[in-house]
């Protein structure tokens, strides 16, 4: 049996623990031995996004100490996984860092590429809009970009297609950015908010009851805008749907 170390980003730990719990429960249901390194903390992405990547060296060192020994590392956050893949500072532990680069996975790519899941015993009787996050789509390549003349695929979409009673709606712009962008939403607040409003409008116009994604940070951004508009549309991490959460 493979052993997976669960990497839970700090904002999920603090604000959306149900996404973390669903990730753990789902992996265990699929026969994976899951452990949670208790000393894990921020991966350093906020510093890197703000132009202070050199200040993330301590985060990198701690990440390697916590995760290097395991077969795989899985996280319900595409943006944090991409940061580790592209910006993990090896320091004096290059071999361990190189291993992590090849063993860390975002949840949906782990389910499709490693476990090769073809069936899920879950149900979610709602109309759902899928938000393809930029980090997941353009960085981790978990779905195809519409501007490319290439066959379309979506690993999150494939998994949602296995969920009984779920209706995955078609969007006018299926891979539009939500405008969050980490610290971008702070430094360019007006642009970020407008992009987010356009993104949720697409889902609302196509009668989504829920917006889901492999990135809770994007959902957090859109949730704030939905709440300000007093919309009935809710956000939910894809792990909760795949795990069969009751709403």
TrEMBL record:
It comes from the Bacteria. This is Lactate utilization protein A. It comes from Mucilaginibacter polytrichastri. It holds the Pfam family CCG. InterPro entries: Cys_rich_dom. GO terms for molecular function: oxidoreductase activity. One of its GO terms (cellular component) is cytosol. Residues 4-85, 128-222 form the Cysteine-rich domain. PANTHER family: LACTATE UTILIZATION PROTEIN A, UNCHARACTERIZED PROTEIN YKGE.
